[in-house]
Amino acid sequence: MNYQQILESIRRDIEPLKCEGKQADYIPALAAVDPDQWGICIDTLDGHQYKLGDANVPFSLQSISKVFALTMALSLAGDDLWQRMGKEPSGTAFNSLIQLELEHGKPRNPFINAGAIVMADLLVERLSNPEQAFINLARDLSGQPSIDYNFEVARSEHGVAYLNTAIANLLKYHGNIVGDIDRVLRFYFMMCSIEMSCEQLAHAFLAFANHREPFDHAGFRLTASQVKRMNAIMQTCGFYDEAGEFSYLVGLPGKSGVGGGIAAVFPGQYSVAVWSPRLNAKGNSVMGLKSLELLTTQSRQSIF
Ligand code: GLN
Question: Smaller CB count within 10 Å for the chain: N or C?
């Protein structure tokens, strides 16, 4: 497959969308990012890499980090995790409170904020240094010891965390947070603030594309079956209230973040990371979505 040629053609085809949408501005530090950037990188399981555009520029992973959090939580708690959250698509915004109230503090899935905040609580409770364990995993998966948190972004988000604090309080009220709310949120914002380039993120997601192999990175282990199931959750829950649309247009398991990044995998073949800060109304990257739609259409490869 000539992926490089496909990437060139994608770059031409997304050009008309370049002014559509706007970057997340509810986190002050993200509002300052130059919105007119786009990069993409594909890593194949047989060791090839294809990239184009701003593929080496680090960006804020935001909710993509929830995939790493789930890796750690599943590795530590196994299926007990599902007593504290579901694995159904939410059909609501990533930071919605409504469903959480109706469902008595049990988040629909690990990839909405409420689910990730419960996972942060679990990791704070079980690990002596969760921040260190999380960054170790990210460094190991990406193969880059230089990967780090952006403390400024974490602080900036914590400073305006009205909605996430409300979510955490509702969780605590229903007994689904064990620890101190402020400690748990501090770790949650740190996880969101981690930065990678498309090149580093594609590399980090190769472990999930390799769904027939057990996962063993930085002390966290998953069986091949658990890796397969992580893909299933990415497929059904990776794009908040646009998971159906992503499945329809792209047909790959993936996860997006309000930093404008999307990571996806074609199980058994490749991982791909794309980034462009301008978001649609649901909080997903406009050019990122279109790029992946074109990738699976032009390559005629998807899980369907
Ligand atoms: N840190 C962001 C938040 O909690 C993550 C949201 C996202 O990427 N969808 O609002």
Answer: C
Distance of CA 102 to the CA centre of its chain: 25
Ligand 1 site, CB within 6 A: 62-63, 94-95, 113, 157, 164, 192, 257-258, 283
Burial class (CB in 10 A: 0-12, 13-18, 19+), 223: middle
* Backbone φ/ψ region at 294: left (φ over 0), alpha (ψ -120 to 50), beta: alpha
pLDDT of residue 211: 86
- Ligand 1 pocket: which of 192, 234, 246 to mutate (most atoms <8 Å of CB)? 192
State in Å: Cα 174 to ligand 1 middle: 22
Q: Domains of the chain by range and CATH? A: 3-9+20-60+195-299 (3.40.710.10), 63-193 (3.40.710.10)
Q: Does the predicted TM-score (pTM) go above 0.90?
A: yes
Ligand 1 centroid from CA 290, angstroms: 21
Query: For residue 88, what are its two tokens?
Result: 């159904």
Over the chain (304 residues), the average pLDDT of each successive run of 10 is: 96 97 94 96 98 98 98 98 97 91 97 98 98 98 98 96 97 98 98 98 97 95 97 96 96 98 98 98 96 98 94
Q: For ligand 1, what atom is nearest to the CA of residue 157?
A: 1
Which ligand 1 atom minimizes the distance to the CA of 64?
A: 8
Q: Are 303 and 253 in contact (CB under 8 A)?
A: yes
